[in-house]
Each structure stands twice: as C-alpha cells, then as structure tokens.
Amino acid sequence: xxxxxxxxxxxxxxxxxxxxxxxxxxxxxxxxxxxxxxxxxxxxxxxxxxxxxxxxxxxxxxxxxxxxxxxxxxxxxxxxxxxxxxxxxxxxxxxxxxxxxxxxxxxxxxxxxxxxxxxxxxxxxxxxxxxxxxxxxxxxxxxxxxxxxxxxxxxxxxxxxxxxxxxxxxxxxxxxxxxxxxxxxxxxxxxxxxxxx
Length: 197
Description:
Structural class: mainly alpha
C-alpha cells in the first residue's frame, strides 16, 4: 500500500507519508525513504526531487511535533495519540536525556527509530528555543536522510533481483503445492474406490 501511494502521488506522496511517520504513524521513516530512493534509481522519480521530498517530509514532521509540544505544553499529554508517542516511561527517559545531553539528544534521537517523535515533542514541551532546535534538527536531517537515501539507491538493483527471485520461488512453491494437492486428491479418490469394492 505504501509503495502504491508513493507511485501514485510521487513527490507529494513521499512528503506526506514522511510527515505522517514523523507524527507517529507506525512506519519507520527509513521505509518510505528507501522506496523513494529505489524509485529514483529505477527512474520513476528524479533523484534530487525524491531526496528533497524526503528531506522536506522528515523536517516538517519534526517541526510540527515541536510546535505542538510548545503550543499545547504539558496539556498535550492528555491526548491519547500524544500519550502513545510519549508514554510515561519514555517521557522519563527523554527528560533525563535532555538534562544530561541537551540538544545533542536531538541528533541522537534522529538516529533512533522509536525515540524520534518523543524527542521532538519533548523539545517543544521543555521549550528548547526554536532557532537552536531547528539548527540542530536540520543538521541531523541533512546527515541521516541522505545516508539512508544513498544506501537504498545503491542497493536498489540488488533488491529488484531479489524480488524477482522471490516471485520465481513463489511460482515454484505454488506449482509444487498444486502437484502435492493433486496427488493427495488422487490417493484419496483411489482409497474411496477401494473401500466401495
């Protein structure tokens, strides 16, 4: 479904999916980035347009979480969706990390899948100055997203070959399954005929 959405809407699709993952949609942001990179490799999209859509979607999700945390303050934790992102246990860990590491934690959180949304929401909650947050987050995004994109771009052809082999293997499995089922059906049919005699 994710791939079809990206294919249909290309650049806006990549941007919107990454925005949604940034807001807590249970899909790792690396997946749409990898899909966009592979589509760029296979010339469905321009590589620079796909990369910009990835950078824009990731950064927008981070900023939106920060703004929500800053605007609504601690009241946001009364929202079920926000509480799913920032559970009490995660809140305690994130607050400890902010006190211990400061804005370095934004960079660390960018690299850890389950921690991103909680860290950016908390940055707004604890009122990290927006220019400082933005500067650090942009630096982290400019490091992490191109690396993910580049790796996926480089392995795209290998993935295509592997998918073709999986499809071929699926055909073989389906053929063997049909053969086994037909043989079993013949065995059962012969047993019934023998039992009637």
